[in-house]
């Protein structure tokens, strides 16, 4: 069976959904190919379930820290029921019906690009003017002796578990590992994080890692950094993880949060001249074009592995296909780890700025010492904000925070970085009292760019 479409979108995660929706709204004939569930990793196994589970523990801990509120306990099964409701019981029939009602042809199965403008799914051959690859990424399991003989949890098993393990070892202290560590700890698990790098969440400023480790230690999460796993041994129902410093960690479950790689294997992209030798990723230009008539969005591009970036790239691709091209910009894109307190950042780190030859000015503000808002929120407040400026251009080039609700108010800095707003304009801004956003005014005022 051969059919023709304006576009075939392979992968219906957030990026693929944006492309599909925008093209269909413009009257284009679109085929959407999905091998699993419409909504992708984020909707069913990553962003949505992890943030849902984090919220329960966050509220419980906030109750402990809030005057006049008596905290109870965390009911795991009730939280798990709500998670299952949020992930629709891993059932996407309503999403499929909604797309079909809009006129999108939904095709289930493994897609393979079999030539320019040609995608094969089972016995169906889909011809098109544009192929959009949005297949996301898959977890990387590290080559550790004994791990191949062990049941290893990925983010899917961790966020979808029906029963919390008593003891868990998490390999990897990045955003995924830290979020899993905290919700498991707050639902009663003994948690140990093992990280090869210098600290946790090392993509950000070293100070961020220090603060996160302090908060984690206070609630009983053990973190072994600068540490390598030598081997894993099975001991019946338990596992023993041996580290290179002689320490052993006994646990009931091992979670691998050691990174992800673009899911491009078996897609047949070589048939349209693409070389994926560089770490499986699809190289794209500024418009997310990989080749003539071939586009890619999301994790497969290896640009920035965030849902919001995939959605943004989806807008860029759809607009280009519709004849309104504009290049993608990645300055001012926020990065968030939804722990408690949250970690939010945008722009460059100090190290990155120095590599670019930027003369910088930096400041760090203790929000609890400078603002009223932390104290109105809880009796054991925390919060730190850091800013980085280009001392010559007099604009912000980076910001970070470890503080409550940082994901929301970090967008102030994101806009300032993206638009290149002059520091004098930021100093003259009026912030609502009492809010965490006031901290930006105080921190900007403390920057010495002379």
Question: Which structural traits does this protein have?
Answer:
32% helix; 450 residues; single chain; eight-stranded mixed sheet; five-stranded parallel sheet; alpha/beta
Task: Outline the structure in words.
The chain is α/β, with parallel strands linked by helices and 450 residues long. The protein has 16 helices and 23 strands. The strands form five sheets. Strands 1, 2, 3, 4, 5, 6, 17 and 18 form an eight-stranded mixed sheet that branches. The chain has a five-stranded parallel sheet with strand order 8-15-9-10-11. Helix 1 runs parallel beside helix 9. The N and C termini lie far apart (69 Å). 45% of the residues are buried.
Q: Helices, strands, pairings?
A:
Layout: E1 2-10, H1 14-25, E2 30-34, H2 40-44, H3 47-65, H4 76-86, H5 93-101, E3 105-108, E4 111-115, E5 118-121, E6 124-133, E7 137-139, E8 152-153, H6 155-160, E9 167-171, H7 175-186, E10 190-194, H8 206-218, E11 222-224, E12 229-235, E13 238-243, E14 248-251, E15 253-256, E16 260-262, E17 289-291, E18 294-296, H9 307-321, E19 335-337, E20 342-347, H10 350-355, E21 360-366, H11 367-370, H12 373-377, E22 384-390, E23 395-403, H13 406-409, H14 411-419, H15 423-427, H16 438-446
Parallel strand pairs: 1-2, 1-6, 2-3, 6-18, 8-15, 9-10, 9-15, 10-11
Antiparallel strand pairs: 4-5, 5-6, 7-16, 12-13, 13-14, 17-18, 19-20, 20-23, 21-22, 22-23
Helix pairs in contact: 1-9, 3-4, 3-7
């Amino acid at each position: 069976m051969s059919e023709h479409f304006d576009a075939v979108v392979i992968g219906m995660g957030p990026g693929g959904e944006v492309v599909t929706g925008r093209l269909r709204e413009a009257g284009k004939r679109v085929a959407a190919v999905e091998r699993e569930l419409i909504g992708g990793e984020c909707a069913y196994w990553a962003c949505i379930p992890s943030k849902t589970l984090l919220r329960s523990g966050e509220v419980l801990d906030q109750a402990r820290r809030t005057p006049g509120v008596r905290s109870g306990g965390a009911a795991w099964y009730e939280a798990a029921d709500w998670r299952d409701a949020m992930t629709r019981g891993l059932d996407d029939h309503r999403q499929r019906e909604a797309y079909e009602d809009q006129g999108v042809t939904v095709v289930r199965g493994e897609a393979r690009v079999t030539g320019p403008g040609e995608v094969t799914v089972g016995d169906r051959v889909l011809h098109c003017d544009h192929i959009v690859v949005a297949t996301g990424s898959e977890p990387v399991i590290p080559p550790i002796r004994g791990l191949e003989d062990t049941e290893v949890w990925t983010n899917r098993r961790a966020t979808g578990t029906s029963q919390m393990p008593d003891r868990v070892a998490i390999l990897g202290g990045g955003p995924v590992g830290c979020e899993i560590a905290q919700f498991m700890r707050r639902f009663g698990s003994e948690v140990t994080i093992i990280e090869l790098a210098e600290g946790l969440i090392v993509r950000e400023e070293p100070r961020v890692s220090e603060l996160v480790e302090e908060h984690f230690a206070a609630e009983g999460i053990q973190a072994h950094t600068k540490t390598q796993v030598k081997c894993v041994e099975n001991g019946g129902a338990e596992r023993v993880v041996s580290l290179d410093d002689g320490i052993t960690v006994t646990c009931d479950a091992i979670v691998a949060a050691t990174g992800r790689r673009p899911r491009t294997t078996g897609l047949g992209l070589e048939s349209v001249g693409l070389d994926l030798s560089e770490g499986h990723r699809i190289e794209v230009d500024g418009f997310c074009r990989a080749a003539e008539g071939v586009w890619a969005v999301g994790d497969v591009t290896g640009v920035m592995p965030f849902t919001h970036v995939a959605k943004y790239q989806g807008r860029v691709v759809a607009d280009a296909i519709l004849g309104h091209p504009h290049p993608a910009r990645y300055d001012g894109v926020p990065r968030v780890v939804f722990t408690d307190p949250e970690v939010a950042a945008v722009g460059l780190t100090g190290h990155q700025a120095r590599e670019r030859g930027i003369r910088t000015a930096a400041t760090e503000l203790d929000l609890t010492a400078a603002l009223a808002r932390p104290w109105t929120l809880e009796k054991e407040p925390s919060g730190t904000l850091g800013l980085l400026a280009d001392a010559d251009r007099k604009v912000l080039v980076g910001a970070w925070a470890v503080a409550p609700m940082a994901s929301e108010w970090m967008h102030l800095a994101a806009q300032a970085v993206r638009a290149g707003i002059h520091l004098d304009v930021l100093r003259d801004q009026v912030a609502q009292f009492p809010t965490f956003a006031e901290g930006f005014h105080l921190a900007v005022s403390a920057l010495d760019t002379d």
